[in-house]
Specification:
12 helices, globular
């Protein structure tokens, strides 16, 4: 996991220092062509067949590079795959486009780029909607990628991103199966984000929102639905803004709420990286 941690730090540092829109470098045409080859099967079978080949190839390359002799090559490969799996748009550049927009129309147009799912409905430019979009985009562009990267290496990060690419497949059965699988991949990292939010934000607001969401009859833990994260984030951000975490206490101002959500996601990221660093250090000590 040491190589994965160093790779994550390198990629995150580069993308935060240079938050340009790098979506053009993340092209998945090769995967869509491969998905088209598998048109003889639909639904979950097509999703499984589509994902297995690239994930196995990626995992095999990472395994061949395993060991200290090829550590630099393994690091370079990990950096390349993680950079490719983030996104597809860069999160920080979309945040800045909204917060630094020249006029309301430009900010509204920029907010559309925070869409977290290919088939998601357009969002209104309101504080709750913007916070929800920002946090779900953070989950699917960054945190879930990092989780599977730390857990399974480059193959995990690539598999996660390709699962979401598959949700844009042409046939409805494959789209539906891919969406269920991608949501299931989001479920555990979303809970770990909630745990980190409880530590770095208003604990009572975060845990109360999580319990309230799961107490609703329509929501079940067995559904593996990560949408609870949006409700939790709204409560946490509202509590932070009302407590004077930023320059304003107006919880109805979309830009104020987005700026606080951005700070909250940064604190959550620091917690995650600190925990992974402790795990790596513990492994070296033992």
């Amino acid at each position: 996991m040491a190589i994965e941690l160093v790779a994550a730090l390198i990629v995150l540092l580069v993308l935060m220092v240079w938050p340009g829109n790098v979506a053009g470098f993340r092209r998945f045409g090769w995967y869509r062509r491969w998905l088209g080859v598998l048109d003889f099967v639909e639904g979950g079978g097509r999703v499984a067949l589509a994902l297995i080949a690239p994930v196995v190839v990626c995992g095999a390359i990472a395994w061949l590079l395993h060991g200290w002799v090829l550590a630099l090559a393994a690091l370079a490969f990990s950096v390349l795959i993680l950079f490719y799996a983030f996104g597809p748009r860069e999160l920080e550049s979309d945040f800045e486009a909204i917060l630094l927009g020249a006029d309301p129309a430009a900010r509204v147009a920029a907010a559309a780029n925070l869409q977290s799912a290919p088939d998601g409905a357009p969002r209104a430019f309101t504080a709750p909607e913007l916070v929800e979009a920002a946090v779900m985009a953070s989950l699917r562009r960054r945190f879930a990628v990092l989780f599977w990267f730390f857990l399974l290496g480059p193959a995990g990060a690539l598999g996660y991103r390709l699962a979401w690419v598959t949700t844009a497949a042409a046939d409805p059965r494959t789209r539906q199966a891919a969406r269920r699988f991608a949501n299931a991949l989001d479920w555990l990292p979303a809970h770990l984000m909630v745990l980190a939010m409880a530590l770095v934000s208003n604990f009572d607001a975060v845990t109360g929102a999580w319990r309230a969401w799961h107490a609703e009859p329509a929501h079940s833990m067995g559904d593996l639905d990560p949408d609870f994260l949006a409700a939790v984030a709204r409560s946490g951000v509202d509590a932070d803004v009302a407590a004077g975490d930023g320059s304003s206490t107006d919880t109805h101002d979309p830009c104020v709420e987005l700026a606080d959500a951005r700070r909250l996601m940064l604190r959550v990221l620091i917690v995650w990286l600190a925990v992974v660093a402790l795990i790596v250090l513990a492994g070296w000590v033992t």
